[in-house]
Amino acid sequence: ELIRTCYSLYGSIQQYRNQLPDAISLYRKAIDYTRQYLPKYNNASEYVRICDCYRMMDDNENVLKTAEEALGNCKLQVVKNEFITYRCYAHFMLGEYDKFKSDYDYLQQHKTALKSINRKMKNAIDLYKAICDGREADVQKLFKKIKKSSESEYLCMMSAYCAYNKDYENSTKYMREFVLSQYNIDKHVYDWDVENIMDIYHDQNTAK
To answer: Is the entire prediction scored with pTM above 0.90?
Structure first.
């Protein structure tokens, strides 16, 4: 159990340092070790952290994939609801709005479990539901709250908001700002990889 704990703790340190790919790798090692040597152990905390790392990287396909994998390994409903929240978040970010609404409605039927869910995730899915419902006053109120808490979260969610409204130019602009904020790249000296990534992102958005 000590080896598994070391992998997980070192992963937490790397996540705190914003070394997210390294953190994911270490959490995966903890999960793999557990499966091999501690099959009765619960890996839920590692799966949550992996989902959060991918969310921080705006890699929503892997947020969704990891949440689905975790759901297949969960038995407690209260734990499942946490991964349904991540799945709900990823659906909106990927433009799968009907699936987002389905998961959101499911979570509202299990409100007691929502009390244990990460506050940032709760704020995010509430914001996205307000966007879907056209409650603009609530949208702006939530955006103000999120921006005060985290500039990078605000930029990422503004990109999703613009994409929902088919404003792909501003969606790409906010996503570019998010990428720059995450990787500390000089705004006036764009690395080719960043520009190339953003061109692809813009093309994918306009193709929807």
So the answer is: no
Q: Tens digit of pLDDT for each residue in 66-82?
A: 999 999 988 787 788 89
Nearest CA-CA partner of 104 in 128, 82, 127, 88: 88
Q: Which amino acid is at 10?
A: Y
Alpha helices, DSSP H, located in 38-135: 44-56, 60-71, 77-93, 97-108, 111-114, 119-133
Q: How many CB atoms lie within 10 A of CB 169?
A: 10
Task: Count each helix (H run) and each strand (E run) in the chain, helices first.
Answer: 12, 0
- Under 8 Å between Cβ of 60 and 79: no
Which CA distances in Å does 199 have to 29, 54, 57, 203?
34, 21, 17, 6
